[in-house]
Structure formats: C-alpha cells, structure tokens
Amino acid sequence: MIDLPVNSEMLTPILIVILIVVIVVRIFRILREYERGVIFFLGRFQKVKGPGMIIVVPVIQQMVRVDLRTVVMDVPSQDVISRDNVSVRVNAVIYFRVIDSQKAIINVENYLQATSQLAQTTLRSVLGQHDLDEMLANRDMLNADIQSILDARTEGWGIKVSNVEIKHVDLNEAMIRAIAKQAEAERVRRAKVIHASGEMEASEKLVEAANSLAREPNAIMLRYLQTLTEIAGEKSSTILFPIPMSLMEQLFKPQDPPKK
C-alpha cells in the first residue's frame, strides 16, 4: 500500500466550509404559502412563523410544520342502533382545517387522529338519537348537527370543521324488504283514499244533477233523447234503453175530455 501524505492545513478549511454549509442549511427554512412553523425556544413556545424563508437557530430552536389546507377525512363505517332499534352501518366524510397552529401543536398530541376519533364517536351518538326514517330523509339536518358538535369540541385544538356529509346508510336485506313492503302499503293506501275521494265527489255531483232534473220534469226527457242520440252513433243493432215508470205513467195517463 502507498500512504498518501495528509496535510492538516488543507483539511481545516474544508471542514470549516462543510460546517458552514450545514449550519446555513439548518438555519434557513422555506415554508410554503399554506404552511406555518411553530417555533420552540429551548422547549418553550416562542412564535409562529411563515410563510416564506425563516431563520431557525439550530440546537436552541425547534420548528414543527403545520399544514393549513383543508383536510378531507373519511370516517370509517360505524355500527349504529337507531332510536327505533334498527341496526345500520353509517359512514361519513368531514372537512376541516387548522386555523390556529399554536393550539393544534400544543393542546393536542395528534390533531388528525384526535379529530378522526371524535368524529366517529359523535357520529354514533348523534345518529343513535334519531329514527331510521330521519336518517334516510333528513340528512341535511343530521349533517348540520354533527358539524356543529365537532366544531365546538375542536375549537380548543385550533381546528375549524367546515362541513360533514353522511355518505351511506347501509341496511340489511330483511330491513330493505320491510321498507319496500311499507312503501307499497303506503301507495295502496293513497290509491284507496284517492278513489274514495273521487266517489264522494261524484256522488255529490250526482245529487246536484238529480235535484236539478227534479225541479224541471221536461229536462229528464231531453236527457233521455240525448242519450239515445249517443247510443245511435255506436252503430249497434240492438239498443236496450230503460224507461222510468214515471215516464210511462205520463204516457198512459188518461187524458181529460175536452170541455164543451
């Protein structure tokens, strides 16, 4: 082996340059427009910096990055028992963002995990207070209730919950068939009510027509003649036409002899 001579005078400037580059890299930090840096000075909170280029003194200062963009979090499916004792599986999605970086880092260990767990428990507790029909028909009201509760509880963490959306309410096959039977029965009930209402209105009109014809005896004759005209247009070979007894009495009623 050939031993190369090492000149300590040459290594010293190189080490100094490398040390300066490392210090400069660690001192200057760049934060994007949607990022903030929470600065701690010897373990104590100092200030929130950013965006842009900031200076962080190594060893005595530490920085924690915080993303201020809206986070879209999918809440896993939760088993919920409604107020009318129906078991369903519900999942949702929540939209939130950090509005206070200091609180998000200092007041809670992991604000993402904490918000996720709080959303799951709140989803179960709120939906358990409502019937199945309300879950299926009043989703906007339930979304607003869950959003207001989450927003109030995460305020101390520096988080703003902007929206909550219930995505799916999954039912078992037996419950789906029961709901279909209920809907069918409701349709049948409405049809019967509409039919009965029509019969009632028709009977009222018939009574009015009968009263009108009774006030004018000749009107019934005109009505019979009109009906005969309509039947004749059908080109039928046989026409059966009922004649009321009152009309027959008028036809066969003996005429009074002429006065002399």
Automatic annotation (TrEMBL):
Keywords: Hydrolase, Membrane, Protease, Transmembrane, Transmembrane helix. Pfam families: Band_7. One of its GO terms (cellular component) is plasma membrane. The chain crosses the membrane at residues 12-31. GO terms for biological process: proteolysis. GO terms for molecular function: peptidase activity. CDD domains: SPFH_eoslipins_u1. Residues 26-183 form the Band domain. It is a single-pass membrane protein. It is found in: Membrane. Belongs to the band 7/mec-2 family. PANTHER family: AT06885P-RELATED, BAND 7 PROTEIN-RELATED. This is Modulator of FtsH protease HflK. The lineage of its organism: Bacteria, Pseudomonadati, Pseudomonadota, Gammaproteobacteria, Vibrionales. The gene is hflK_3.
